[in-house]
Automatic annotation (TrEMBL):
Cofactor(s) the protein requires to work: Mg(2+); Mn(2+)
Native source organism of the sequence: Succinivibrio faecicola
Function: Catalyzes the formation of acetyl phosphate from acetate and ATP. Can also catalyze the reverse reaction.
PANTHER family in UniProt: ACETATE KINASE (PTHR21060)
Protein name: Acetate kinase
Upper taxonomic lineage: Bacteria, Pseudomonadati, Pseudomonadota, Gammaproteobacteria, Aeromonadales
Location in or out of the cell: Cytoplasm
EC code(s) of this entry: 2.7.2.1
Enzyme class, broadest EC rank: transferase
Length: 406
């Protein structure tokens, strides 16, 4: 293809990876996507796939970092399709934590990078990697705007009664300890799509959006603005997740430190990497083998899914308070989009009290990987509509970046 529309490059950097995609911000068509993996390690490598093409993978060389991965993208992958390279007019960067500094997509300059550094303590694994990606991308794409799109930005509309903690005032004023939330770009996208399905302006809707992946969060979205969300200061809070414990009594930390002589860092690792669905089920952090275990009569797998559904249902129920009424509950993310058993467990917790009725036939047919991105899984007489919507954070980031193209 020689004639491309104006496209955006979307970059999402992890501590040892960089995901990238070149897409059309108008319709979301992806012309190229790929990932650099094991960066900094012996087997650093990069793989990519053009639209309609086959996946290609090649080593980057031992110890190759984010800079070499993005240089390879420019000098090797895109060099073979100069028309696609020339079509890129903006670059959007997914940034996990923007603190209370940023509530909108922001053009990146040196000051923005410094502010991203300031909030590293709130995202110690993610923000340093984002900065590596920003520096490498600005070097390799020096003539286009680079835009930071913050996972926390969408949640900046929460009122103080929702985001403040009941701790000494100076911890908030001096240390900025408060609820920030996460997955904001996803929650914003699925809220917009749910409003379209309802046939109502976003500004006239009350929605509960559930982003259910290995990391998971739920948000209350009133008239297009977030009024509460489940994740807190960090992505550890809230729902039970793949390997994260979610909300827990803080005294458990003191107990483990004193009784088992654990350091706070060791407890943090346990809560982030060794807990959640993996710990309860004893099988996996992946929901598919857990559901298979339930079907085989595994009691730990059954308990794990019951706990997950119960916790999510309680958050959903609590969000009736700030919303007043609910037009739709939306399931998204890898589990939300492709996990009918999980959706059924969640809705069964809500049926008696709230009249929420799931259509089992529609629910078990609704798997986003089968090609339908927007589906209704509620019965006609359900008090609330139930939607399954495929999230598309890359499209939101691309559109945000294009706002800065002159």
């Amino acid at each position: 293809m020689s004639n491309y529309p104006k496209t955006a490059l979307v970059i999402n950097c992890g501590s040892s990876s960089v995901k990238f995609a070149v897409l059309d911000p108008t319709d979301g068509h992806v012309f190229l996507n790929g990932i650099g993996e094991a960066l900094g390690l012996e087997d650093a490598r990069i793989s990519w796939k053009h639209s309609g093409g086959e996946k290609t993978e090649t080593p980057l060389g031992a110890g190759a970092g984010h800079d070499k991965a993005l240089a390879f993208l420019v000098n090797n992958i895109l060099a073979d399709d100069k028309a696609l390279l020339d079509s890129i007019v903006a670059c959007g960067h997914r940034i996990v934590q923007g603190g209370d500094i940023y509530s909108q997509p922001t053009l990146i300059d040196d000051e923005v990078e410094e502010n991203i550094k300031k909030v590293i303590p709130f995202a110690p694994l993610h923000n340093p990697a984002h900065l590596l990606g920003i520096d490498a991308a600005r070097e390799n794409f020096p003539n286009i705007p680079h835009v930071a799109v913050f996972d926390t930005a969408f949640h900046q509309t929460m009122p103080p009664k929702a985001y403040r903690y009941a701790i000494p005032e100076e911890f908030y004023t001096d240390l900025h300890l408060r609820k920030y939330g996460a997955h904001g770009t996803s929650h914003m996208f699925i809220a917009q799509e749910a409003a379209k399905m309802l046939g109502k302006p976003l500004e006239e809707t009350c929605l509960i959006t559930c982003h259910m992946g290995n990391g998971a969060s739920v948000s209350a979205v009133k008239n297009g603005k977030c009024v509460d969300t489940s994740m807190g200061l960090t992505p550890l809070d809230g729902l039970i997740m793949g390997t994260r414990c979610g909300s827990i009594d803080p005294s458990v930390v003191f107990f483990l430190c004193e009784r088992l002589h654990k350091t706070p860092q060791e407890v943090e690792k346990i809560f982030n990497k060794e807990s959640g669905m993996m710990a309860v089920s004893g099988v996996s952090s992946d929901f598919r083998p857990i559901v298979a275990g339930i079907q085989e009569g595994n009691e730990r797998c059954t308990l794990a899914l019951q706990m997950y559904a119960y916790r999510l249902a309680k958050f959903i129920a609590s969000y009736y308070v700030p919303l007043g009424h609910v037009d739709a509950i939306v399931f998204s993310g890898g589990v939300g989009e492709n996990g009918p058993t999980t959706r059924k467990y969640v809705c069964s917790e809500l049926e008696e009290a709230f009249g929420i009725k799931i259509d089992n036939d529609a629910n078990y047919k609704a798997r986003v990987y089968m090609g339908v991105d927007h589906q209704v899984i509620s019965k006609p007489d359900s008090s609330v509509k139930l939607f399954v919507i495929a999230t598309n954070e890359e499209l939101m980031i691309a559109r945000s970046a294009m706002q800065f193209v002159k």
